[in-house]
Amino acid sequence: MIDTHTHLYDEAFAADFQETLDRAVSAGVEHFIFPGIDSASHDAMMRTAALAPGLISTATGLHPTSVGAGWKKELDFVEARLAEGGWCAVGEIGLDRHWSDEFFEQQKEAFRIQMLWAAQASLPVIIHVRDAHDTLFETLDSLRDEGVPMKGVMHAFSGSIETYRRIKKYGGFRIGIGGVLTYKNAGLAETVKHIPLEDIVLETDSPWLTPVPCRGKRNESSYIRHTAARLADIKGTTIEEVDRVTTAGAKELFNLK
């Protein structure tokens, strides 16, 4: 399996990163993707990735909740990193109105700019969206109308089948499914019944969004098996088939060797 979205470089893993990594590998995780957040977390991400060469791929991007007063300097940082090359994606980028609207206009501009950079670099995007789907689709509509190529993953997807179908109209997008799938009242299971397995990639978003039966604990990449098992149950197939199809999809999307 491939954990296409994990923050194992977060301080939550500072004391036991190697043990956490070993558990994930033992659970069948063969590769990990670290999404970028901002300049403040970049060094920790790169240092941690260097501890497991070949196992970890990294992305660079400005997370919407990191868009603040210094957002232009943050974008300059992302642009400079992109020029260095070696990234598997541009992300984690997107829109988020959950905590505050104060810098939402700047979020929109930062998102659009980074989408254009991703297209120029022929890289997929990792999109985070919370309480801002209408604006997200307005931006994607505009980019599509301009002929901008788009591909990537809608991270932590929890929407309806209609939302999925709209996302698919923008090109090569897949749906990131994590621990929310295991939550009894989330409603995601009903949507996932109608999403082809080929359009799904697995993720944890660790240390957050811990799946059942581990809720209340810090999430980690080894717990991806609980999501895979639930997905297999919904699809009437095996964990091995979920692994095979989602891994192939992740390798194609992120150009993993």
Keywords:
257 residues; five-stranded parallel β-sheet; three-stranded parallel β-sheet; hydrolase; TatD/YcfH-like
Based on secondary structure, the structural category is: alpha/beta
- For the report, how would you describe the main beta sheet? 5 strands, parallel
Rg is 17 Å
- Average pLDDT rating: 97
- Provide a count of the helices: 9
How far apart the termini lie comes to: 14 Å
Multimerization status: single chain
- Helix percent band: 40-55%
Strand content: 5-15%
General shape = globular
Keywords: Hydrolase, Metal-binding
Protein name: TatD family hydrolase
GO molecular function: DNA nuclease activity; hydrolase activity, acting on ester bonds; metal ion binding
Organism: Candidatus Coprenecus stercoravium
Walk me through what this model shows.
The chain has helices at residues 17-26, 39-50, 71-84, 104-120, 133-145, 161-168, 188-192, 224-235, 239-254, and strands spanning 2-3, 31-34, 56-58, 90-96, 125-130, 151-154, 172-177, 200-202. By secondary structure, it is of the alpha/beta class. It has a five-stranded parallel beta sheet with strand order 4-5-6-7-8, with helices on both faces. A three-stranded parallel beta sheet has the order 1-2-3. The longest helix has 17 residues, at 104-120. The radius of gyration is 17 Å and the shape is globular. It holds the Pfam family TatD_DNase.
